[in-house]
Amino acid sequence: PRGCSSYAAWSRDLAWAKGIGADQEKARQELIGLAERASSAEERGVYQLLLNDLPALWSTNLPFEMVGFLRYQDCLMRKGKYDGA
After folding, report:
1. 63: alpha, beta or left? (left if phi > 0; alpha if psi -120 to 50)
2. DSSP 2
3. pLDDT by residue (tens digit) across 26-57?
């Protein structure tokens, strides 16, 4: 599903950004803004999931490529469904 691809790509990118010293609060504010401007419920759901996952993404020591891969696999296993999404 497209939502899984977006979720995995954003998760990967956020893990990468953390790795190069990005500010977690700035990332959180950007995700809030994107969620507010999202054009679909699916898109808003992806940003909400990312906001919920931000602390975990910021604390992981996994390589960013692995974060994206694992998030995509997990999303597919859940058939794109998550609690609160």
Report:
1. beta
2. H
3. 999 999 999 999 999 888 989 999 999 999 99
Calculated CA dihedral for residues 63, 29, 85, 2, nearest 10 degrees: -60
Mind giving me the DSSP string for 45-82? HHHHHHHHHHHHHHH--S-HHHHHHHHHHHHHHTTT--
Which residues have C-beta within 8 Å of that of residue 38, sequence separation ≥ 6? 44, 47
pLDDT band at 79 (very low <50, low <70, confident <90, very high): confident
Task: For residue 83, give every residue at least 6 positions away whose Cβ sits within 8 Å of its Cβ, in sequence order, or none.
Answer: none
